[in-house]
Amino acid sequence: MMPSWPDARRAFYAGLAALLLTNAVPGQAEPIRRKLCEGFDCSPLALGDALTPSALAQQGSTPTEGANPSPPAGDNPDSERVLEEEAREGDSEALAKQAQNPIASLVSFPIQWNSTPGTQWAPGALDPSARANRTLNVWNVQPVVPFPLNDNLTLISRTIVPVIHRPLAGETDVIGIGDINPTLFLVPRAKGNLMVGLGPTLVIPSATDVELSGQRWSAGPAAVAVYTKGPWVGGVLVNNVWSFAGQGGRDVNAMLIQPFLNHNLPGGWYLISSPILTADWTAANGKGWTVPVGGGIGRVFVLGTQPLNASLQAFWNVAKPTVLGDELLGDVTIRLQIQALFPTGG
Length: 346
Description:
Elements: H1 5-24, H2 29-36, H3 47-50, H4 53-59, H5 78-99, E1 106-120, E2 132-141, E3 144-148, E4 153-167, E5 173-177, E6 181-188, E7 194-203, E8 217-229, E9 232-245, E10 253-264, E11 269-273, E12 277-280, E13 289-303, E14 306-319, E15 322-323, E16 326-327, E17 332-343
């Protein structure tokens, strides 16, 4: 049975009196509290416990009872569900922002599929029969693992293991692992909305087929900056590598730029644009640029107990590298990514 308003008021004043008299009249606070609480349960209740949906349900009232009477929680089961759904949406948005940040303290395992139809397997100078009617597929497995070094620094390991399906002459294709690209970022603890990371990147000539490899060891600096404000997460990742060892292939001097912009929506949904621009500085007449433009949509959700992040984007390749006078890459690239998330709680 709910206590009457006079009993509740009496209990409130009992607690207040005991608190005020604790220092003013040593030894008298407890006797006074017992006297005022005769016939009423004045046991303490933590404020955090009092405001939880389960506590409100047990009390049979909302915090606003008295001014605006509400039906007991037992008669209004939707109230707790609404609070839980709002909490889940807040968690989804926070997790989405972490997933969109390449240097967040979040263990993740993304698998990214890039498909470019309308690709030509070779320049016409090498094979006059080559046509822009093949599809290039690249699956990037990209585990990201943070290693906290101390209270102020975190080391982020990001490794790209490409699995490539490349068309060759006639109806021949080659499928295998390409050159592995590990990167390390040293990230200071952010005190505002901006995070930055700096470190080295390395390209290992580890491909399972010579057709999928640059055949040279390459390395260089990498940097990333991320700005988060409200529903927005944006930034840019940049690196440049130069070859320094290896047999075969040709000298490497290549840059990668990946700007990214995300706008988070309710329910874990978000809008995304994260094109990958590349430049081959060894190409003649500046014809080594790949510049895609586009974007798409994504969502963070839970499958069973596993948080996942999925996104789908489409890009128009407005600039493509030229090889012996031909642009081999197709006009459109589709990117689908599934990312398993493992929050560290840090």
